[in-house]
Design brief:
By secondary structure, the protein is mainly α. The protein has one domain. Helix content is 69%, strand content 0%. It is built from five helices and no strands. Helix 2 packs across helix 3 and helix 2 crosses helix 4.
């Protein structure tokens, strides 16, 4: 699904066999998958490690989503390297983030 979205947003003038471009598409797809994953459930155990893992997952998820929510040069650069237009990608991801 995500790869089709990326492929559909690709500039048709850029050859598809460009390996660098394919790598950046994969980076973008991973970022998209990270951002739209469901919120982690709260820790069941009261162990410090369980709470630490939960906090780290929440922090990672917040960072993953901020990548698309905030207008950052990094996102624009990755989209440029991947040969895709940032606005449709951003809109799609923001529409899929669980509320």
């Amino acid at each position: 699904m995500l790869l089709r979205l990326i492929a559909g947003a690709t500039d048709s003038q850029i050859p598809e066999d460009n390996r660098d471009r394919e790598l950046w598409k994969a980076v973008l797809v991973q970022a998209m998958e990270d951002a739209i994953c469901p919120d982690p459930p709260p820790p069941v155990a009261s162990h410090n490690y369980s709470r630490w893992v939960f906090r780290r997952r929440v922090e990672w998820l917040r960072e993953s989503r901020a990548y698309f929510q905030d207008s950052t040069p990094d996102f624009e650069t990755v989209c440029d390297y991947a040969g895709v237009s940032p606005p449709p990608i951003r809109r799609w991801v923001l529409g899929k983030i669980p509320t």
